[in-house]
Every structure is written in structure tokens, then in C-alpha cells.
Design goal:
Structural class: alpha+beta
Strand content: 25-35%
Number of strands: 15
Strand order of the largest sheet: 1-2-6-7-10-13-14-15
CATH superfamily of one domain: ApbE-like domains
Oligomer: single chain
CATH class of one domain: Alpha Beta
């Protein structure tokens, strides 16, 4: 047996050296995507990736009037959904429960009211409007039985933008692995999943962006991490925001208060085993205060975080879990 192992290792190394890098770029889900993989031949085409993402859009895109999610939102009691939708719903219920409702996909009416929905708005809602909209928020009004998603109140509407992109990354990554690809990086709108090492034995390196220490400066690279397997996603409030009448609001809405988040958190970069998990929890962590977020991640197996926040004096600071620190190479 020992002789067999010694014989096979050089053969494996030789075969890996014959692999070359293939890169696919495209546009889907309102953003750019990139797929990089190593293989001895072109095993995946842009057409195949586009086809996968089109199917997911037909299920969960709010910008497609024919999508299942659009039909669900327009329904009075709910409807039958497909496998993609059902898997994202199951993960959404998990994150909702584990974060005490800080992650809630029924925020769609609030997201629209604050100007981050499908339609533009002339102004921000007042307290009376928010109070009224909150009557139609709460995942406790949803239930999933096999492939039927039901709602207790007809006004309940869902927005999966905070988790569906991570799921899309996982679906594409699983497709690559099904094709026999063992080294790749899939990125959609900044959400990533990778598997390595590369044929030369090195790990993939991922740059972590963050805001400048000067609030008027441009965002830049804060750290580089080396990773061989897992997903990395980021949720933040320093890039995506709106300003009207001198008021600046974040796109991250607190489902409990109905107002945009306003705490010390600036961004959360989360590492997890898969992208749908990282994508769902990074939003919920943004709704926590720093110490609570760190304690939450430290209690979760297979989860690490890098957090940028404002300290008590308003200065930009950062911190990271011990596992994340081990991945930092610069």
C-alpha cells in the first residue's frame, strides 16, 4: 500500500501541472460575475453559467414580473415554488430563527419605501407610514410545507436579495464540481466561493475591501487572505445608500424598527463553508453591535468574520476573529 501511494503522488502532480486557467465573465442578477477554474480542457462555457443563473432569476428575481417570487408577492395566500426557491426559503427560516429575527425576508415593503426596491421613490417614509408597513413584516407569517409557500396575511411580500446571490454562487460552484473541476473561484457581485489549491499548490488569495479611515476618502484594500476552500461574502453600508433632503440612509433595513440600520457597524466580511450561509448571516451581523456580532460568530462552527466599525469617537476601526486572522497574509 505504501508503494502504491508513492507511485500515485507524482502522477497526480503531473496531471495537475497540465491544467490551465479558464475564465468566464458575464452579467446576471443586476451585477457582474466571474468564474475562474483550472482544468486540462474547457469544461464549462459562459452559456451554461448564464443558463443556470437565468433559471434562478426566473425563480427569485424581483425584477422579473414572471418570476415565482413576483407571483408569490402578488398572491393572497401563497403558491407552489420550485427547488431553488424552497432551498433558499429553508435557509432563510434558519437564519431568521438563529438571529432572533434580525434577518427577515419580509422587509420588501420597507425596502421599497426607503427607495431600494424595484420602483424609484420621491421621498422617505414618515413614522406613520413605517408603523403601517410594519404590520406587513414578519417571517412568522410565512410557512413552508414541502414545496408550498404560504402566507397568513396577503400583504406579506418577500425580498431574497440578501441571500439569493450567495445561493447562486453555490449552485454555479456545485455545477463546476459536478463537471470534475477541483480548483475554482466563483464570484457574483462580490460574493465568492472557492476550492483549491491551484495546480501549483498555492492557495487562492482574496482581497478584502473597506472604507478609508478618512470618511471622504475612497474605499481600498484592507487585507488579503489565503483560502483553499469555503465562501467569503460581505455586507456593508458605505457603498450602497441614498440621500434625499440632506438625509443619508443605508440600504440595510432593520425589520424590527422599519428604519435603516444606524449602529456602529460599517461592514462584515464573513467566511463560511458555503456562500448562502455567509450571505444570509452577514446581513444579520450588520444589525448587531460589535461585541454581540463577535460572540455570535465565535459560537458558530466553520464561521469566521472580519468587521469594520466606528468606535466611540466615530473613528474607523476593524477587528477579526482568531480564525480569520490565521487566513490573513497581508
Amino acid at each position: 500500500m505504501c508503494f502504491l501511494l508513492i507511485f500515485l503522488l507524482p502522477l497526480f502532480s503531473f496531471n495537475r501541472r497540465k491544467e490551465r486557467q479558464y475564465t468566464i465573465h458575464g452579467y446576471a442578477q443586476g451585477t457582474d460575475y466571474s468564474v475562474k477554474y483550472f482544468a486540462p480542457d474547457s469544461l464549462v462555457s459562459r452559456h451554461s453559467v448564464d443558463s443556470i443563473l437565468m433559471v434562478i432569476d426566473s425563480s427569485m428575481s424581483l425584477y422579473k414580473p414572471y418570476s415565482l417570487i413576483s407571483k408569490f408577492n402578488a398572491s393572497a395566500t401563497g403558491l407552489r415554488i420550485d427547488g431553488h426557491f424552497a432551498r433558499v426559503m429553508k435557509k432563510s427560516f434558519e437564519v431568521y430563527k438563529n438571529t432572533a429575527g434580525r434577518f427577515d425576508i419580509t422587509v420588501k415593503p420597507l425596502v421599497q419605501a426607503w427607495g431600494f426596491g424595484v420602483r424609484p421613490v420621491a421621498g422617505f417614509p414618515d413614522s406613520v407610514a413605517i408603523k403601517d408597513l410594519l404590520k406587513c413584516v414578519g417571517m412568522n407569517g410565512l410557512s413552508l410545507q414541502k414545496d408550498v409557500l404560504r402566507k397568513k396575511r396577503s400583504c406579506l411580500q418577500i425580498d431574497l436579495n440578501g441571500i439569493a446571490q450567495g445561493y447562486s454562487v453555490d449552485v454555479v460552484a456545485d455545477f463546476l464540481e459536478h463537471r470534475g473541476i477541483s480548483a475554482y473561484v466563483v464570484e457574483i457581485g462580490g460574493e465568492l466561493r472557492m476550492k483549491g489549491p491551484k495546480p501549483d499548490g498555492t492557495s487562492f488569495r482574496i482581497g478584502i475591501e473597506g472604507p478609508s479611515d478618512d470618511e471622504h476618502g475612497e474605499p481600498g484594500l484592507r487585507h488579503t487572505i489565503a483560502i483553499n476552500k469555503g465562501a467569503v461574502t460581505t455586507s456593508g453600508n458605505y457603498r450602497k445608500f441614498l440621500e434625499k433632503g440632506g438625509q443619508r440612509v443605508s440600504h440595510l433595513i432593520d425589520p424590527k424598527t422599519g428604519y435603516p440600520l444606524h449602529n456602529s457597524m460599517i461592514s462584515v466580511t464573513l467566511c463560511a463553508t458555503d456562500a448562502v450561509t455567509a450571505d444570509g448571516y452577514d446581513n444579520a451581523l450588520m444589525a448587531m453591535e460589535l461585541q454581540e456580532a463577535l460572540a455570535f460568530v465565535n459560537e458558530k462552527k466553520g464561521m469566521e468574520a472580519y468587521i469594520i466599525y466606528h468606535d466611540g469617537e466615530g473613528k474607523v476601526r476593524d477587528t477579526l476573529t482568531s480564525g480569520f486572522k490565521k487566513m490573513v497574509v497581508n
